[in-house]
Amino acid sequence: MSWRIGVDIGGTFIDFCALETGTDRVETIKVLTTPDEPGKELLDGLRLLQERHGIAPGEVVSFVHGTTVGINTIIQRKGSRLALITTAGFEDVIELARLRMPEMYSLFCARPEQLIPRDRMPAARSPRRSTPTGSPPPWPPSAPRASTASSSPSSMPIAMVPMRRRRRR
To answer: Contact at 8 Å (CB) between 79 and 115?
Structure first.
């Protein structure tokens, strides 16, 4: 027997879902989180999976987890001030948000405040970009952005997101 385990770490509960790959048997459990002892609920849940459903640690072939705690902290603006590194030339994409508005036809509709303000979105030049001849594109001059001590980030997470081009048919 081999098992795949997925875990979602939330603010109140941690949810476990285990799939036995040979039979497609699914087992789930929910464990209360322990904010004072982070990680304890994960070990408790794995122990409960073994006790209640006979899932031995040696039978686990895949373990993945996700967390809503980090996303909720950002959305609720309770954590550190964050910055977002964007690719040079694409700084406006985040702010434009595909021109989606909560009330598309209202003249008085306003967008919610950005999660990360524009002055904390530094641009980085991608080394992969090039012109059709293979040479790097000319670097456009840009005005330096004003930054104040109150708006400077105390944390700067960096995420590398691969982008794929669509093939034309």
So the answer is: no
Closest CA to 151 of 112, 114, 116, 113: 116
Sign of the torsion angle spanned by Cα atoms 29, 64, 57, 40: negative
- Which two three-digit tokens encode residue 17? 């879902």
For 116-129, write each residue's pLDDT tens digit.
888 888 887 665 55
For 84-111, how does the pLDDT look when each residue is reduced to its tens digit (9 = 90+)? 888 777 777 777 766 666 777 888 877 7
Burial per residue of 142-169, b for 16 or more beta-carbon CB atoms within 10 angstroms, e otherwise? eeeeeeeeeeebeeeeeeeeeeeeeeee
Q: Report the distance separating Cα 42 and Cα 64, nearest Å.
A: 12
Dihedral, 53, 54, 59, 65 alpha carbons, nearest 10:
30
Contact 28, 20 (CB under 8 A): no
Which helix (H) or strand (E) segment holds residue 6: the answer is strand 3-9
Residue 67 has a CB neighbour count (10 Å cut-off) of 14
Dihedral class, residue 105 (left if φ above 0, else alpha if ψ from -120 to 50, else beta):
alpha
Give CA–CA dist 63/83, Å, rounded: 30
